[in-house]
Amino acid sequence: MIHVVHHPDYVTPAPARSTYRWNKNGLIRDLLLDKGDAVAWHRAETTPTAWLEAVHDEDYVAEVLRADVPKEKERRIGFPVTAAVASRAAIVPHGTWLAACLALEHGFAANTAGGSHHALANTGAGFCVFNDLAVAAARLIDERRVARVLVVDCDVHQGDGTAALLAGRSEIATYSIHAEKNFPVRKARSTVDVPLPDKVGDEVYLATLESTLVPLLDEFRPELILYQAGVDPFDGDRLGRLALTLDGLVQRERLVADLAIGRGLPLASTVGGGYGEDALAIAERHVAAIMTLGETFAAAGDAGRRVGALNAR
Ligand SMILES: [Zn+2]
């Protein structure tokens, strides 16, 4: 049974003047519905404003919730923040937090949205409005559900917003492996950054991921991983610069899950980047990531379940 967090408002009609593929989340939901009993569904709620304000500026939170974001910030985000977009943005961070709580209980859980890693304190950016990873990580620490959280970001773009928002919090570490020449031009400083040259393929990517993530896991000893499983390192991605195959992406999820399971670590995943003309193909890549992570935890059997049982509080 794979625990999946969703909300009907994740599927939002595209605002006018938007080039972002808004139907991705609906397709992800439909593909997961096809899995039948393999998926246990959970519903996200609107994120309490105080949780958002724990990492974002009050003024920016208010601008979004009123759907009254200044034009220059909307340009930076990449689409207008309509009432529907604002309502969605207010739900997604709770979904990532809920996935983390479910992971503490069951070992693994996934949010079908989120991974909004470019959002900063006073503005959104790069198709991100609120930073669900930062909001959830900060909240989990504030609630003392865990003592240390590691955000692992494998999106092809650097997790600059997450790094900036969580800098200086000793209970939270950030890891980003990304294409160096890609957006954002000005990178932030994560706890560990792994910039890759263009066109890196499966073998080098997986070896580099393992050799850089393992020392951080061993040194920081997180009690939970929040995993941004962007699928834009795929060779055919419109905004990626790397060259992973579909099999390489699946191997990446297996590696990340195995590293977590081997250390008794619960893991909650979000989606993330994935760009191109064929929205269904992109949704399939996200669903393959969720299913691979979930199945790897399930296949670990007792070890996977022990991750949940150990952390259930
Ligand atoms: Zn991306």
UniProtKB/TrEMBL annotation:
Domain spans labelled Histone deacetylase: 40-288
Keywords: Hydrolase
Classification via Pfam families: Hist_deacetyl
Family named by the database record: Belongs to the histone deacetylase family.
Protein name: Histone deacetylase
The organism's taxonomic lineage, starting at the top: Bacteria, Pseudomonadati, Pseudomonadota, Alphaproteobacteria, Sphingomonadales
